[in-house]
Structures are given as C-alpha cells and as structure tokens.
Amino acid sequence: MSTGALERAIRRASAGDAAVPERCGLCDAPIGGAHAHLLDERDDDLLCACRACALLFEREAAGRGHYRLVPDRRIRLAGVRTADLGVPVGLAFFTVRPDGTVVARYPSPMGATEWSVDPAVWTAATAGCAELGSMRPAVEALLVSTVRNGRVRNADEQWLVPIDDCYRLVAVIKRSWTGLSGGRRVWDGVQAFFTGLAEHSDVTDETDRSEE
C-alpha cells in the first residue's frame, strides 16, 4: 500500500474533501468532489482520475498496462468463515492478485501490515459466499470486522468493497489511534466508517447485524 496514497487519504479525512483540491493523476486536470480512482499496480498506488480519464478504463475490467479502474460497488456479504482466515485485532481486508494469490492486510497505527493467505484456506473460508466469485483482482477487497468499540462481538461485518475504501479505513486508524488499544476516538471512527458503508451499499442482506 503506497505511503503517498495513504497520506493523501489522511489529509482528506483530516481537512475535508472541499479543503484539499485534487488533480487527475493522469492528465493533471482539476477534480472537484467525488471522483474515480485508478490503481497503479507498478507502484501499488492509487491515482485520482477525472471523468474523461476514468471513461478510458470503464469498459476494460482487465485494465490498461499497469492501471486498473477501481469499481464503485459496496456489497454486504454473509457466509465467509472469518475465523478460518485469522483476522488480527478483529479487522482485516483481503485482495486477490491477478496471478490468483491472496494477500491480507490489517490496518494499524503504522499503516497496513501484510501477509499471504494459503490458497486452500482462502477457498475453504469463502466457499459459502458466492458473491466473492465476482471480486475483481487487485481493485476490490473482502473487508471483515469482528470488533466494535475495540471489543470482539458475536456478529461480524463482511463486505465486498473498492480498494480505495480500505485505504480510507487505514487512514482513519492511523490518524486517530492513541495508546495501546487505540482509544475511543479510533473505534468511533471505525464504527462510523462501517455505518457509511451500510448507507451507500449496493446490496444489503437481511441478516440482523445489530448488537445484542
């Protein structure tokens, strides 16, 4: 995960989108408000994209060269056996590389820590979730959380999200973490993040995920 992209996400979260003007990473045109992102696989970096440049990649799921358009869909999932995946501190996201290998990362005060997932473990843990078969390599992620306010809970969050959402979550944690356990501010920020996912999701399952 690129330090540059992460720092940009932290600046936007701290100052507000309107206070941090963006420019297209390809043509340098100014961008206002919501916009698309491109993943630069060569540098593992996220680039902001104006509408014209995003259109060049919109119909090319495989990308052009080392650039891939980041989709804009958020789907609440069910059926992933998160315990089998081993989710450190109750929060992690998983991406599939173009070669089929699976990489897991968990947000931390230092950024995102990465490790590889055994292919057999990934297949077994996700066998009960058909939607993951449509997850696009590199630019989408399985995001899971089994914590609320820093405590492990019975019900967990399982989402198919754009990879830039994961950058935003890492930025929330890196910006707000205090002490050994993160502090109330960081867990409030994590909860607000997942609340926002629910409000902007494309498909929501009917499972009751309220706290007992």
Query: How many helical elements?
Result: 6
How many domain modules?
2
Structural class: alpha+beta
Q: Specify the overall morphology.
A: globular
* β-strand number: 11
- Helix content, binned percent: 25-40%
Characterize the biggest β-sheet.
Answer: 6 strands, antiparallel
Order of strands, widest sheet: 6-11-10-7-8-9
Mean pLDDT, rounded to whole units?
79
Quickly describe the structure.
The chain has 212 residues and is of the alpha+beta class. It has helices spanning 3-15, 51-58, 82-85, 119-126, 163-176, 183-199, and strands at 22-23, 30-31, 36-40, 45-49, 67-69, 75-76, 91-96, 102-108, 111-117, 140-148, 151-162.
Written overview of the protein:
By secondary structure, the chain is α+β, with helices and mostly antiparallel strands. It folds into 2 domains: 3-69, no CATH class; 75-199, no CATH class. Helix content is 30%, strand content 28%. It has a 6-stranded antiparallel sheet with strand order 6-11-10-7-8-9. It has a 3-stranded antiparallel sheet with strand order 4-3-5. A hairpin with a 5-residue loop joins strand 7 (91-96) and strand 8 (102-108). Helix 1 packs across helix 5 (163-176) and helix 5 (163-176) packs antiparallel against helix 6. The radius of gyration is 17 Å and the shape is globular. The termini are far apart. The model is unreliable at 204-212 (pLDDT under 50). This is DUF5947 family protein. It holds the Pfam family DUF5947.
